[in-house]
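USER: I would love a firmer grasp of how sequence relates to backbone shape in proteins. This is the protein in question:
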Amino acid sequence: MQHHWKELIAVDRYTVQSRGVLQEVDRKVLTLLYQPLIGCRALALYMTLWGELELLDGQEATHHRLMALMQCGLPDIYSERLKLEGIGLLDTYVHAKEADEPKLFLYELRPPLAPDQFFRDEMLSVFLHRQVGRHLFIQLSNFFARPSIDETKFTQVTRSFSDVFSAVPAEQIVAGLSEEAGPELLEGKDHIRRDEESYVLDDDVFDFELFFAGLSKQLVPRRAVTAKVKEAIKKLAFLYGIPPLEMQKLVLGVIDPAYHIDIDALRRAAREWYELEHGGVEPRLVERVQPLAYRTMENIEPRTKEEQLMKQLETISPRQLLKEISGGAEPSLADLQLIEDVMFKQQLLPGVVNVLIYYVMLRTNMKLSKKYVEKIASHWARKKVKTVKEAMELAKEEAKTYQNWANEKEKGTRTVRKVVRTEIVPDWLNMDYSQPDDDDFDVEQARKELEERLKKYRDES
């Protein structure tokens, strides 16, 4: 690229994030289906940024770093970046500071299309056929093909999200009802889907016809309401009970001059609208319990303390867990807000969040440190943790890493004293307990107190 220096220089900084969860199958799709279209250098840039996603973990670096990692010049990096953007694998954002200061780029990786979507896409499939030839194209198609079933012989009975769940009515939230007031599984609970793409809301949960009727096309063009924006509007309207005319105002408040609707800004606006409408009390994502499809202890009688804990964390909501840990006292709004943010942003299931709460409480003197919680939650989201068992195993495997994270804020303030414990139960927390926050904090005593409170809850329920 002859004029890349107008857009990008080596001292400009960058950070990486992912729009969705990248999975192992994505590597095969990228290598076998996308690489013939974009070339090996563009693929190398994508894979390098994927590696940087976890390595940088939200930190910033200069483009000198990318040049060193890829062993190529900035013009090549810039031109290959454009290929990734053009084919829909990368979104690039830039934060221009003062004229004499380096820019900050945000590279947002987008997962590739699923194989069946790729081959259904006329443009991509034809392009691939032209690049690799008929023989290899058929081979690739067969490799990624799934066994086909004649769906005409079946009647679809899948329940939609709105059929199965209900949002919390405002009056119930304000009245401070217990877990039963939260979103519940109704009679169709056995039809929860296991799809990786989470859940789908029916269009009839929100009146888009009324929504668009009151919007000026000059202020909000239809093209601004992309499929992702539309899905976000449906979810936010369902969760917060926002009517179409109010949603118009929220969208007008977050659309930018380039007609881009920031979904994160829309979510914040929806939350603020709800707080104003309902006296600062928010709907409770934290009332949900682990879906049946992701429970490993369902219909199994626990034989060990670890299995007892697993079963309980699968059947209790995060809010109720916080309440029991507090001896029956209602959790603080700040703690509930933190947990809800984790569930919404990282898309962690309730049982996984329960393990996170339990783990952090034991590691940080019974406190929920925001940065610590968010850092572990982000790691678990990248690892695609779905069950309580997976979360407990990962907590044990990464114990030293998580302890280093907890110790980071203490560096330079005082020496951390190691506390040796002889008895550590349950087994999944069999690790070195050093407490950065309080040398006198007794982990084992805290664990016993947690067990007693949760045992009381089991006995009462």
Summary: Residues 169-199, 412-427, 430-441 have pLDDT under 50 and may be disordered. Strands lie at 13-18, 61-62, 90-95, 104-109. The chain is about 50% helix and 5% strand. The radius of gyration is 25 Å.
